[in-house]
Amino acid sequence: MLREVKPRTARTARILKSRDAKPIEDRKKTLLLHGPKCPPPLHSVLKTIHTLTRPHSVLLTKKNENIHPFENVDSLEFLAGKNECGLVVWGSSSKKRPNGVTILRIFDGRVLDMVELLLLPADSGGEGRKLPVGVEMKPMILFAGSVWGDTSTSEMAQTYSMVKSLFLDVFSGEEVRSIDVEGLQYLLMIAAGEPENGQNPMVHLRWYKVRTRRSGQKLPRVELDEVGPTFDFRVGRTKEADAAVMKEAMKKGRGLDEDFRSKQKNVGMDTVGDKVGRVHLSRQDLGQLQTRKMKGLKRGAALTGEKDMADGMEIDEVSEDEPAKKPRLA
Q1: Is 191 left (phi over 0), alpha (psi -120 to 50) or beta?
Q2: pLDDT at 21 over 80
Q3: Is the pTM of the predicted complex or chain greater than 0.70?
Q4: Which CATH number does 25-259 carry?
Q5: Any residues with CB less than 8 A from the CB of 283 and at least 6 apart, and which?
Q6: pLDDT of residue 126
Q7: Residue 261 — pLDDT band, cuts 50, 70, 90?
Q8: Exposed e or buried b for every residue in 58-84, given b needs 16+ CB within 10 A?
Q9: d(CA 291, CA 314)
Q10: Where do the domains of the chain lie?
Q11: 3-state secondary structure of 89
């Protein structure tokens, strides 16, 4: 049984309260760490991720010894909790696994899942390209390849589904309901080829600057200019989350569930998209319904009018002693 730590000061109480579960969680911060050996290509990967995620990322340039994510994660969990980060990107290079980038996801102070991406040697001239992206710019993310949409239960489909989820957590930024079109200035394309001979396809990361040109019509012509460095990865080791822990991590509050409103009784959506509902009322007595007040609609006025009409009519009465006249024949 875990020992419950009670705060001794008001500052500690505020820190612990900010770490409690919330109906709408804050944006995840990313912790970027260097291993004992971090060559320039690997440092470029960490620097690029830090540029795209700042100010919600922490880059520690000091070399960390004796950290092995797939063997012992205690040090990484401690550093993530100290810096209040939900994502960790660990870059380290060794003779057996050169230029390895490990992405970890933290839940409740523990490692949820992780994946290792091995950086391949660059064969293009994108090393010296700059990435002109402003702070807090939300990217458009494109996943190109059939492996990203594979929903089967195969090992490859599960692996690339986890890689896609981790990339979205790192680069998607804060969730917003609306966004200005002027803020969509760059595109992140994450492409993967087709699997060959049972091997996992490589993952390619490319960044493009969105430019609008005059087209002579109402809508502008959109062009993409490739910017920033290019990275090619090969998927290495993976560690999936436990099913029970993942179910707990994916839990939502009932008020925030998107399907909750559609499950309400007598509430639905019409073809236009408006919310419509049905209200049940008790039986109403329409005799007591208040209508427009008019003199002609009053009950007394109606009876008086019938009596006056009866008095004004001439009735031809026939006496009982007087025989009825026979009609005259022509």
Answers
A1: beta
A2: no
A3: no
A4: 3.40.50.10480
A5: none
A6: 56
A7: very low
A8: bbeeeebeebebeeebeebbebbeeee
A9: 37
A10: 25-259
A11: strand
